[in-house]
């Protein structure tokens, strides 16, 4: 008894000693970290060409929300690399990329960072949309009346600014969205996504690191956070309806990207597919579905299409089969990279770090990008792909190195910690006239949008990297805002990137740069907690795009045109969408092999 008691007090004493030791140790650690960081900043300040007062990310109001990005483990926010989700083209993931990201030494574990308070907003499931509202009879007749009544409304409802814009949002069972957020620790194998899904999916606020960013509107946004950001924007959409028969489109707030994310590595197909199957079963049983066979339904998956487009039942093949389900083929899936050979997905921009809450924040940013002096002709942030046969990244890195002072390289493989901070990458893009955007593990890169945001003219090497992807958001006349250097020419050593870029006249460069800056509002997602006044952001444009697409699908159904499900026809989808024809084109060879099996 006594012994036990003594042991207990002994334990208490030991516990106290441990406690104080821990406090002292963390004090020493934080002081040294602070000094280290600070000296780095001072050193950096001398070099920096930005004369901006926002050196440190301290804010008087909410200091815990304002992290300088140097405080974060941002390895997965990669703008240079197509992230952890690299597709090994034979259907199996490459392990190389993974090790780049998981082997970062000396990076703090963000598991211990506090979750910002706004996080709670995320898990309140959205209260919009009543339970199974009254629906018109799901048959041909109701289709006709729906269209008729909308044309009749032309006169009577002229004053309704939402006419033909209404969106109905399903009240999905919580396992399709809010539960995924409650379980956010499971989303990523490498990082604590709970942290990056705070602030309605925008992530923790970024301070004005070394003057790279403006004071407001910057967040350490994960490139896969769009499921949540989009849903939260939708809750603010000005034309929501609770009456599905008034809706121009029906939104399915399933977090398809976050849902599959934990199962992409090392799980069998039944684990990867289970939510997708459950979802389509739920949808197909809804009266809202039957009205248009789901052709007016859409969802957002903030991942590349290949993560959701497995065509076989073999475990070794990549991704889930969501996109290949027959219900999904009738829907519109918004993804950050679509398939050139399929018709049911449409690409929308990757999220960037900028999420303004007022029009003025955007104008201020655009003006600032106009005034910047460009120190480098071109730049590249990324890692080589030594294991990827045919990758041109090595050529690009070599050419950049050979160009000495005209090209700035941010190499992401050599302990590339520099690459892992939004401010480093954004600063480099801001100081460059052109930003090289070669394909990586897939055609597209987040980096493209970060470079546009920085007023840097993107240089593409494959039309699949943007032109045939973001048709709603980027101008079809791609030469107005970008340069295309076919990858073959680089691979064969036929093109010298530097001289090609130097051959563009100063006048042309000026016009292109202005066009890029003009595009900024179209490629950013505004803060879901506020509403921009005159500016249409990437979300607004995406919703308009969906509504137009649905209108066309409904028209086709009413005209009883056979539903175009011809696989050969679909294989030419990229050409049809971009050129409006499927005639022979000089780009054909770019799309002759499916990326999953080639490259
Ligand atoms: C992809 O996976 C296959 C099968 O495991 C393997 O043989 C191949 O070397 C991998 N390719 C790359 C580029 O890693
Ligand atoms: C829903 O909208 C349709 C078509 O505009 C209308 O006929 C119907 O009465 C509305 N239902 C409800 C419950 O408001
Ligand atoms: C798939 O994996 C899960 C758990 O990882 C297991 O319970 C299930 O039986 C597996 N299914 C098949 C068909 O192998
Ligand atoms: C998809 O649409 C077609 C044509 O409208 C229809 O025949 C088919 O039943 C729909 N599929 C599902 C699963 O609803």
Automatic annotation (TrEMBL):
Chief subcellular location: Golgi
Alphabetical keyword list: Glycosyltransferase, Golgi apparatus, Membrane, Signal-anchor, Transferase, Transmembrane, Transmembrane helix
UniProt key word Isomerase: no
Highest taxon, organism lineage: Eukaryota
GO molecular function: glycosyltransferase activity
Keyword Membrane: yes
Residue stretches making up the Exostosin GT47 domain: 162-494
Membrane topology summary: Single-pass type II membrane protein
Compartments it resides in: Golgi apparatus membrane
Region feature Disordered, mapped onto this chain: 127-152
InterPro entries associated with the record: Exostosin, Exostosin_GT47
Membrane-crossing residue ranges in chain numbering: 20-42
Similarity-based family: Belongs to the glycosyltransferase 47 family.
Protein name as annotated: Exostosin GT47 domain-containing protein
């Amino acid at each position: 008894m006594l012994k036990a008691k003594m042991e207990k007090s002994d334990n208490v004493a030991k516990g106290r000693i441990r406690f104080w030791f821990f406090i002292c140790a963390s004090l020493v650690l934080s002081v040294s970290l602070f000094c280290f960081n600070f000296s780095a900043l001072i050193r950096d300040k001398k070099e920096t060409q930005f004369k901006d007062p926002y050196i440190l990310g301290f804010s008087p109001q909410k200091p815990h929300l304002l992290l300088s990005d140097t405080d974060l483990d941002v390895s997965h926010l990669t703008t240079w690399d197509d992230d952890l989700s690299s597709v090994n083209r034979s259907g199996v993931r490459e392990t190389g990329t993974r090790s780049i990201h998981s082997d970062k030494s000396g990076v703090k574990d963000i598991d211990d960072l506090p979750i910002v308070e706004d996080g709670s907003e995320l898990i309140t499931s959205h209260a919009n949309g009543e339970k199974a509202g009254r629906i018109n009879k799901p048959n041909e007749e109701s289709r006709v009346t729906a269209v008729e009544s909308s044309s009749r409304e032309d006169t009577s409802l002229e004053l309704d600014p939402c006419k033909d814009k209404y969106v109905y949002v399903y009240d999905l069972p919580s396992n399709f969205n809010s539960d995924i957020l409650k379980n956010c620790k499971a989303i990523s194998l490498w990082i604590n996504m709970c942290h990056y899904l705070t602030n309605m999916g925008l992530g923790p606020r970024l301070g004005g690191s070394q003057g790279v960013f403006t004071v407001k509107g910057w967040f350490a946004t994960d490139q896969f956070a769009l499921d949540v950001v989009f849903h939260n924007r939708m809750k603010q959409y000005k034309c929501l309806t609770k009456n599905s028969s008034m809706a121009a489109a029906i939104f399915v707030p399933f977090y398809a990207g976050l849902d599959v994310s934990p199962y992409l590595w090392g799980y069998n197909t039944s684990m990867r597919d289970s939510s997708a199957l459950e979802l389509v079963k739920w949808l197909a049983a809804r009266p809202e579905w039957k009205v248009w066979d789901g052709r007016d339904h859409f969802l957002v998956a903030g991942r590349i299409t290949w993560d959701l487009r497995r065509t076989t039942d073999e475990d070794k093949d990549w991704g889930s089969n969501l996109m290949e389900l027959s219900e999904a083929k009738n829907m519109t899936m918004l993804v950050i990279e679509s398939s050139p050979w399929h018709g049911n997905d449409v690409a929308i921009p990757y999220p960037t770090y900028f999420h303004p809450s007022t029009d003025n924040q955007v104008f201020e940013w655009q003006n600032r990008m106009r005034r910047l002096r460009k120190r480098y002709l071109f730049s590249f942030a990324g890692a080589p792909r030594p294991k990827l046969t045919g990758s041109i990244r090595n050529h690009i890195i070599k050419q950049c190195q050979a160009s000495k002072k005209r090209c700035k390289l941010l190499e992401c493989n050599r302990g590339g910690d520099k690459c892992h901070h939004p401010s480093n990458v954004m600063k480099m893009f801001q100081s460059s006239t052109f930003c090289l955007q070669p394909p990586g593990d897939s055609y597209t890169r987040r980096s493209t949008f970060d470079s546009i945001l920085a007023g840097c003219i993107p240089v593409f090497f494959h039309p699949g990297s943007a032109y045939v992807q973001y048709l709603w958001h980027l101008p079809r006349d791609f030469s107005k805002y970008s340069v295309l250097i076919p990858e073959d020419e680089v691979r064969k050593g036929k093109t010298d990137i530097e001289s090609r870029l130097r051959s563009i006249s100063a006048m042309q460069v000026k016009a292109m740069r202005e066009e890029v800056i003009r595009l900024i509002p179209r490629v950013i997602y505004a803060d879901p907690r506020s509403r921009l006044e005159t500016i249409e952001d990437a979300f607004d444009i995406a919703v308009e795009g969906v509504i137009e697409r649905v209108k066309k699908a409904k028209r086709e159904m009413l005209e009883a045109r056979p539903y175009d499900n011809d696989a050969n026809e679909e294989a030419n989808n990229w050409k049809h969408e971009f050129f409006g024809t499927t005639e022979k084109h000089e780009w054909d060879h770019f799309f002759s092999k499916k990326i999953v099996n080639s490259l």
